[in-house]
Write a structure and sequence with these properties.
With 595 residues, the protein is α/β, with parallel strands linked by helices. Helices cover 61% and strands 13% of the residues. The protein has two domains: 11-315, ABC transporter transmembrane region fold (Up-down Bundle), CATH 1.20.1560; 382-594, 3-Layer(aba) Sandwich (Rossmann fold). It contains 19 helices and ten strands. The strands form two sheets. A six-stranded mixed beta sheet has the order 6-7-8-3-9-10, with helices on both faces. A four-stranded antiparallel beta sheet has the order 2-1-4-5. The chain is elongated and about 115 Å long. It starts with 10 loop residues before the first helix and ends with a helix. The relative contact order is 0.08.
């Protein structure tokens, strides 16, 4: 199990925030268990009085039992109301804090794990944890009440009490053995569920691509293998539990019958009263419930530990590195950018357990591959100029943009904005300085206007319309029945690829950042839309530092400077005309595009 800093959150901190109402919930649960136990004793006494024909006493006992039953139902209603009210609050707070922590993680972390890895930890595990806690509280209270009943029976007759105690001890020993095996199996099932969630999410998001490429059978085969793996691991978990439960239940149930034999024998010898025999008879299933309850508590504690470790591992810096920022605030960024002797190495990792024999062992990152992308890369971009990076796939164009926006961190050298190392800049200064428009932007399941307001919450309709016009999307939006209030579905599924990209461009333009980065952001646009975006970019010249990574060289003809990359090195730079005239590779690349 990993070690956490004392300042890092744990589940107890969230629970103690509501300790008064949750304490009241536990008190009601204890009181309810006591009443339930009392009702059982009262019914046994009522039967005893019937055997003596004392019917007035019988009616009195039944009246008390009726009253206590009503009180028990009221307690049940009250405790559940309290629990669900505050459990939902704790779950929501956990979801929020875990999501916020995920935002703090380095971008490279998300590339090392699938979507399901984070979805399960942020969304599912908080709810699972609170469900386990509810079960633990309920079963602990019920089990303690049942054990008190064993003590009560033992006080009435030591032989019956010892027989019941022996059954409980053996049943608990079997449960202890089962719980030790469950932890390892539970972790394997959770890991397999993460993989399934990730794959399912990707399939849903890429449904059109799957159909258009005829990948249904192939992905169906991959899905089948992952689901089979999950079913196999889950079956192992459940079958192992089932084996132990079967042995336990057989022993306990046979033991219960033998206790009844003992009760009949003692009653025949007049060594116990009829009320005690009836108490043991009516309570015979509770003996099994005690063992079951102790087993459930063990299950829930194991599962709770796994859930908490999975949730709060996101706060473990040794596993999930967070982004680091400085304290320098730049209020008036001009947009000058410089790479000074930058080195960057791409690394791939696998996650392995420190100790494969221990089910509680922490997972650690193990380096499996590294590839040097840049070594001693240097260049300058002047404020309010339009600069482009071009080159073959894999030459490092997009990596430069990720280093420039601090999505990746350099392994050597410096990236400077207005002469300040970006590692020294505050998060606010850095994020406000740069707007990055990705090749495949994510559009949220909101209206068009709400998507744009994410970039600038106080934007006026006039500013929104202006941004849409610059992104060549205004005519399309204006012709929609609900215009800006049109809801566009998850990841903008109701929009075409080009429309999603133009909406993302409008969203970025609305921020009015001093540095605007276009990472292949016109790649999904048709020639007309691309030309409109190109004109918009040209209109912005001189207003912001504009950096473009372009797939189509025709989009960067008017750039002030173009850097041509090859194998992680800048091999040429200049205007479009200069490179076309003086660099054969650039010349041939443009001719190939025009063909």
């Amino acid at each position: 199990m990993y070690k956490r800093d004392k300042q890092q959150p744990n589940l107890w901190k969230y629970i103690t925030k509501y300790k008064l109402p949750l304490s009241f919930y536990i008190i009601i649960q204890v009181f309810s268990a006591f009443i339930s136990m009392l009702i059982t004793i009262i019914f046994a006494e009522a039967i005893e009085q019937m055997s003596f024909n004392n019917f007035s006493n019988v009616f009195t006992y039944l009246g008390i039992a009726l009253f206590l039953t009503i009180v028990l139902r009221i307690c049940w209603w009250s405790s559940n109301t309290i629990y669900y009210k505050y459990a939902t609050k704790i779950i929501a707070e956990l979801n929020t804090d875990l999501a916020k922590q995920a935002f703090k993680l380095k971008s490279t972390i998300f590339g090392e794990h699938g979507t399901g890895f984070f979805v399960q930890r942020i969304v599912s595990e908080p709810e699972n944890s609170m469900n386990y806690i509810e079960g633990i509280v309920n079963w602990v209270v019920d089990t303690i009440a049942s054990l008190l009943m064993v003590i009560y029976i033992s006080c009435l007759n030591i032989y019956v009490g010892l027989a019941v105690l022996l059954i409980l001890l053996v049943g608990i020993l079997i449960e202890y053995k089962r719980i030790k095996l469950r932890h390892k199996n539970r972790k394997a099932v959770s890991k397999s569920r993460d993989d399934i969630t990730s794959l399912t999410t990707e399939i849903v998001k890429s449904e059109k691509d799957i159909k258009s490429l005829g990948l249904e059978d192939k992905l169906g085969e991959i899905s089948s293998k992952q689901y089979d793996d999950y079913k196999r691991k889950n079956a192992k978990l459940m079958i192992t539990d089932s084996h132990f439960w079967s042995v336990r239940n057989l022993f306990v149930e046979v033991g219960i019958v033998l206790v009844l034999f003992l009760g009949v024998f003692l009653y025949e010898k007049s060594l116990i009263a009829l009320s005690l025999f009836m108490l043991v008879y009516s309570w015979k299933f509770s003996i099994n419930d005690i063992v079951w309850g102790i087993g459930y508590i063990g299950n829930a504690l194991v599962d709770l530990k796994v859930s908490c470790n999975r949730m709060f591992s996101l706060f473990d810096e040794s596993q999930f590195e967070t982004e680091k920022f400085g304290n320098v605030e730049l209020s008036n960024i001009k947009g000058k950018i410089e790479f000074k002797n930058v080195k960057y190495v791409f690394r791939e990792y696998e996650f392995k357990k420190e100790n494969e024999k221990s089910s509680f062992s922490k997972e650690v990152k193990v380096l499996t591959h590294e590839n040097e992308i840049f070594n001693n890369l240097s260049f300058k971009i002047e404020p309010n100029t339009t600069v482009a990076f071009v080159g073959k796939s894999g030459s490092g164009k997009s990596t430069i943009l990720s280093l420039m926006s601090k999505m990746y961190e350099v392994d050597g050298g410096e990236v400077l904005i207005d002469g300040v190392n970006i590692n020294d800049l505050s998060k606010t200064s850095l994020r406000n300085a740069i707007s990055l428009i990705n090749q495949f932007p994510y559009i949220f399941d909101m209206t068009i206007k709400e998507n744009l307001l994410l970039a600038k919450t106080d934007a006026t309709d006039k500013e929104i319309i202006q941004a849409l016009k610059k992104a060549a999307l205004y005519d399309f939006v204006n012709n929609l029945p609900k215009k800006l209030d049109t809801k566009i579905g998850e990841n903008g599924i109701k929009l075409s690829g080009g429309q999603r990209q133009r909406l993302a461009i409008a969203r970025a333009l609305l921020r009015n950042s001093p540095i605007i980065i276009f990472d292949e952001s016109t790649s999904s646009l048709d020639n007309f839309a691309q030309n409109s975006i190109k004109k918009s970019i040209d209109k912005m010249k001189g207003e912001s530092t504009i950096i473009i990574v372009a797939h189509r060289l025709s989009t960067i003809k008017n750039a002030d400077k173009i850097f041509y990359l090859d194998n992680g090195k800048i091999v040429a730079s200049g205007t479009f005309d200069e490179l076309y005239k003086n660099n054969k590779s650039f010349h041939n690349m443009f001719l190939a595009e025009e063909i």
